[in-house]
Design brief:
Length: 307
């Protein structure tokens, strides 16, 4: 008599089950995201720009920023040798534009991360700890909201030393209030749900509720807000550099516009000095905005963003 035995499947642990659900959620998100043509176009543009930024040392070389070894004459118009012309020192504007990609993306990503981190922390704590703490924090947030962000960033950039980290800090600590208000509203919505009451009844503390229940539910909103803040950070960095408040030792798109203004490109009609960095800023900001709006549409279909 023969008996057949079947190997029972090993039990799936809670952590493995959680990772399986996350992968399934990511797959559903990507499937819905691909249905939006605008979002895919923005993602393709960002991927191309990120590739250019990473490959900048291979494409143009670090010596292209040197003023003493400039290969061309001052303010040469576009030609076969210099497709975008040269700046006031004779450097290739195409090479400078490629190098500026690295700085603009770095500032945008780091400043947006700092801004969203502050806004998320303030929003969750203000929504969870009601009473005097929430009121005080939101009044401070309202004060930052009514104050012009650019004015505060200019004040910080003026007081602190001119460097890339100063620009990141100035943008990050002045653009968080919008994120804070959005996260607080979502936190209040999450904490009104029944499972939060059950968690409190079972002895869940403040840290457990905020980290295990509130934070995962507000993360989709934070992700969408991050993509939108990046475009704002890039525009603000370009504005600070154009006003002469950036680091003069690095090449950025805003710094190129500042150099063009100082060289009199506006009055002399040297359009090739002004148009490329301005268009690059506009294209990157638009690409991040398209991605952010698409993420919002996928995570919240009620917005009705067109495909």
């Amino acid at each position: 008599m023969t008996t057949t035995t079947t190997d029972a499947a090993p039990p799936v642990g809670p952590r493995a089950l959680a990772w399986t659900r996350r992968r399934q959620a990511a797959a559903r998100f990507w499937q819905q995201y691909r249905g939006h043509r605008a979002g895919m176009a923005g993602l393709a543009v960002l991927a191309l720009i990120a590739l250019v930024a990473l490959a900048a040392p291979l494409l143009v070389g670090a010596d292209s920023q040197s003023v003493t070894g400039a290969p061309g004459g001052p303010l040469e118009s576009p030609s076969a040798e210099f497709p975008l012309g040269t700046d006031q020192f004779g450097r290739s504007l195409l090479a400078l534009l490629v190098w500026g990609t690295r700085v603009s993306l770095t500032v945008g990503l780091l400043a947006a991360f700092l801004s969203v981190a502050i806004g998320t922390l303030v929003g969750i704590t203000a929504g969870h700890f009601k009473g005097w703490y929430g009121n005080v924090v939101m009044r401070i947030t309202d004060w930052f909201l009514v104050m012009p962000t650019l004015v505060l960033a200019i004040a910080l950039a003026t007081v602190l030393s001119r460097s890339l980290w100063t620009t990141i800090l100035a943008i990050g600590v002045t653009t968080w209030p919008t994120t804070a208000r959005l996260v607080r509203a979502q936190t209040l919505s999450v904490e009104s749900r029944p499972y939060i009451e059950r968690s409190k009844a079972l002895g869940g503390g403040h840290r457990h509720i905020m980290s295990r229940h509130v934070l995962p539910n507000v993360m989709p909103l934070v992700l969408a807000q991050t993509t939108l803040v990046i475009s704002t950070a890039i525009l603000t960095e370009a504005t600070l550099a154009f006003l002469g408040l950036g680091d003069p030792t690095i090449v950025s798109w805003g710094g190129l516009l500042q150099d063009a203004r100082e060289a009199g490109a506006v009055s002399s009609g040297d359009w090739w000095y002004l148009a490329p960095p301005g268009l690059a800023i506009a294209v990157v900001a638009l690409a991040f905005t398209l991605c952010g709006r698409t993420i919002e549409s996928v995570l919240n279909p009620k917005l009705g963003v067109s495909r």
